[in-house]
Write a structure and sequence with these properties.
The complex is a heterodimer of chains A (about 475) and B (about 250). With about 475 residues, chain A is α/β, with parallel strands linked by helices. Chain A contains 23 helices and ten strands. Helices cover about 50% and strands about 10% of the residues of chain A. In chain A, the strands form two sheets. A six-stranded parallel beta sheet of chain A has the order 1-10-7-4-2-3, sandwiched between helices. In chain A, helix 2 runs antiparallel to helix 12. Chain A is globular, with a radius of gyration of 26 Å. Chain B has about 250 residues and is an alpha/beta fold. Helices cover about 50% and strands about 10% of the residues of chain B. In chain B, strands 2-1-3-4 form a four-stranded parallel beta sheet, sandwiched between helices. In chain B, helix 12 links the parallel strand 7 and strand 8. Chains A and B meet through helix 1, helix 2, helix 18, helix 19 and helix 20 of A and helix 1, helix 2, helix 3, helix 4 and helix 8 of B. Bound molecules: iron/sulfur cluster. Iron/sulfur cluster binds next to helix 14 of chain A.
């Protein structure tokens, strides 16, 4: 799945757009979620204050991350949790595997954790002969289809119920052509129930970890994290180090923001607190860096570590809604993914910061006030400077810069075939004029404004030129 | 009050009528307007493509042309935003700063500096307002649907009192049209789809005109409308305001 050749965003999005009905459906479904978010966010008088507060708390966390991590580790250990540190994805996967190996267990039930997607844990464990079942319904569906999730909160949002029906028919033996969501959900539930009852190891993600108490919170709507964790002998929780909040009292701020931003719910159905293993259970926490400290060190991009993975920036992003999550070829898609991905690998993800119109809607919905579109702009500058753009584009841009810096050349170029239309905005480096595929070119006027102005400027005051 | 008229390069070359409307409108509103002939482009297309380091020449040229005015006014939110956010020159930073602080988008200049809250006249058509992202979310010309805050809109305010002008309420009132500078060709499929969807919203409200403060968005929408052979026309807000008989 993960080692496939990367298709650039624009190419994948072009493919996605071939099926107009599906794009419309994808767009409208996610817009519906955005509208629900608006409704519930706008009901809270102090919404903007809440965002500001959350942003400041996270600022504090990022500025003192070392201390909070040490505090968290000590408290978690005191609670009887075994704490592991992973520098990168590989180490994370090895740690998880070593815990499985120690208990000689070959099966795991997992509840949605984007971090394990980021680390490609499923592939890694599969190679070691370990079967992983994702228990979140959406995640379960994409797993059966051998696809990665396309959205961090709604992993199967790119699929219609017809697709799900087909998948379940193939893998779970459900009735062909039965699209009834109730029937389909119930079939999945039956199949998953058996999984929960037989798994010895459960892995969950972490939404928030509290430094002060050494506990962590997992938010789900299906209760599947609890089912897995409560029934298993071993609970492994994996978290990126930025998931910390200093104190318990800060949870209220984030829990209020998270669900409203994600789906418009006041709060997720389950916000489960895990503090210590129950008698006879083993509880592990794997704290992962995997590029995070590098991002923390990049001043322009450190804010991206405030992200609480609500997905609101994806739902509001007009580009995401019309290109689908898979076009971002990264575990975290959409606007925030486009900031996080180049940090992980610039050469693989150089296209992503350009997959945006910089409209800024993402920045406005973000519950922790990440300056998402400004960071996308800044990534573009970094990627160009570090040489991740096609040479032809650079040559074109250099020419353009020269022409535009010189009024005389500009005017000559403008007259001879309207330089601007050919070169800006967008015709750069394009023999096959992509503008014209589905759009008419503007009419070419008889004279430019400056030509008109030369003739009409002063006297125009006295006569009506309309 | 001396006003420097900043006409974006593509407006100069392709939409001179928008430049003319802006120039005439400002004069009607009592301003002393001058178009510095040496101006070219603000450098935005390069900066947004990641080549901000190549805009030094543009910046210097911009400063040479626009220093010394009381205000600089431009009928394009995105170009104004670029200048406001990114115009710098290490050799003459004070001049750059002065420009950044006095550059205004046309409608905000009318409402905030000239303190004119409506312009009388008649425009008997159904009009949809395309809110451009850089004007709205960048320059904050109007309230953004994402935020929990009271509504306001500088451009709409100017249209509200025009006789016969029926300003429709769009379903998605501030979604991006998909122009996005070079995005419109590098991400052609998504760009066009976004434009088509914006148009559908206006269409479903049966508008005669789509107006807005950014000719680049309107150029993109116009390109699609023409290809669809639609009856809907695009018109820059300066053209509406300048066409009013008063
Ligand atoms: S960047 Fe902000 S809006 Fe996007 S997922 Fe993270 S917290 Fe949510």
């Amino acid at each position: 799945m993960s080692s496939e050749k990367i298709i650039p965003h624009s190419e994948a999005a072009t493919k996605f757009n071939k099926d107009v009905e599906r794009v419309n459906w994808h767009d409208e479904t996610l817009w519906f979620v955005r509208a629900k978010r608006d409704k519930s966010a706008h009901q809270i008088a102090d919404w903007e204050l809440l965002r500001e507060t959350a942003s400041k708390i996270k600022n504090n966390v990022l500025s003192n991350i070392h201390d909070y991590l040490v505090e968290f580790e000590a408290n978690a250990q005191r609670n009887g949790i075994i704490v592991h540190w992973a520098a990168d994805a590989k180490e994370h996967n090895e740690i998880v595997h070593s815990i499985m190996a120690k208990h000689d267990v070959k099966q795991m039930v997992k509840s949605k954790s984007m971090l394990t997607e980021e680390c490609h844990l499923n592939d890694y464990l599969a190679e070691k002969g370990i079967e992983v079942i994702d228990s979140d319904l959406g995640e379960y569906i994409v797993q059966l289809r051998k696809e990665p999730p396309s959205h961090i909160v709604l992993p199967a949002i790119h699929l219609k119920k017809e697709d799900v029906s087909e998948t379940f028919h193939e893998h779970l033996g459900t009735e062909k052509g039965n699209f009834n969501p109730q029937y389909l959900t119930e079939s999945a539930r039956h199949s998953l129930r058996n999984t929960f009852l037989t798994r010895k190891v459960a892995l969950t993600g972490v939404n928030f970890a509290v430094a002060e108490t050494g506990e962590f919170v997992v938010c789900t709507n299906e209760g599947n994290a609890d089912m897995g964790a409560h029934l298993a002998d071993v609970h492994i929780a994996c978290m990126g180090f930025e998931k910390l909040v200093p104190k318990r009292e800060h949870l209220g701020v984030f829990l209020r923001l998270l669900a409203r931003s994600a789906t418009g719910q006041p709060i997720t159905t389950f916000s489960s607190h895990f503090k210590k293993p129950r008698d006879g259970q083993e509880m592990h926490i794997v704290i992962v860096d995997n590029g995070r400290s590098k991002q923390l060190g990049r001043e322009d991009f450190r804010n991206s570590l405030k992200c609480i993975r609500c997905g609101a920036c994806m739902n509001t992003c007009p580009v995401y809604r019309r290109s689908g999550g898979h076009s971002y070829h990264n575990a975290v898609a959409g606007p925030i993914g486009s900031i996080l991905a180049p940090n992980l690998d610039m050469s693989k993800n150089a296209d992503l910061p350009f997959a945006s119109t910089l409209c800024g809607s993402c920045t406005n919905v973000c519950p922790v006030k990440i300056d998402i579109h400004d960071q996308l702009y800044k990534w573009r500058q970094v990627l160009v400077k570090d040489g991740y753009t096609p040479t032809a584009k650079t040559v074109a841009m250099k020419t353009m810069a020269k022409v535009l810096a010189n009024p005389t050349i500009f005017n000559i170029a403008g007259k001879s075939g309207r330089f601007v239309m050919k070169n800006i905005p967008g015709m750069v480096n394009n023999k096959m004029n992509k503008w014209y595929d589905q759009r008419e070119m503007p009419d070419v006027p008889e004279e430019s404004f400056r030509e008109w102005y030369k003739k009409n400027s002063r006297e125009s005051k006295s006569k009506d030129n309309e | 009050m001396k006003i420097g008229l900043f006409i974006p390069c593509y407006v100069d070359q392709f939409y001179p009528k928008v430049g003319i409307a802006t120039y005439e409108l400002l004069q009607k509103l009592g301003c002393d307007v001058e178009f510095p002939m040496g101006q070219t482009c603000c450098g935005q297309p390069m900066a947004n493509s990641g080549y901000a380091h190549l805009t030094k020449g543009c910046d210097a040229n911009f400063i040479a042309n626009f220093s010394g005015f009381d205000y600089i006014v431009c009928p394009s939110g995105s170009c104004v935003l670029h200048v406001k956010d990114h115009l710098h020159d290490e050799n003459q930073e004070d001049k750059a700063a002065a420009i950044r602080n006095t550059v205004y988008e046309l409608t905000e200049f009318i409402t905030d500096i000239l303190k004119i809250d409506h312009i009388d006249g008649r425009f008997p058509y159904k009009v949809g307002m395309h809110v451009s992202c850089h004007g709205q979310r960048g320059l904050k010309l109007s309230q953004m649907s994402e935020l929990n805050a009271p509504f306001f809109s500088k451009p709409e305010q100017l249209l509200h009192n025009i006789e016969g002008l029926d300003l429709v309420a769009l379903t998605r009132k501030d979604e991006c049209c998909g122009f996005g500078g070079t995005f419109c060709v590098t991400e052609e499929a998504v760009s066009v789809k976004m434009g088509q969807d914006r148009i559908k919203d206006h269409e479903s409200h049966n508008v005669d005109y789509i107006t807005g403060g950014d000719m680049s968005c309107l150029m993109h929408l116009e390109g699609i409308l023409k290809r669809q052979k639609s009856r809907i026309k695009t018109i820059h807000i300066a053209e509406i305001l300048n066409s009013l008989e008063n």
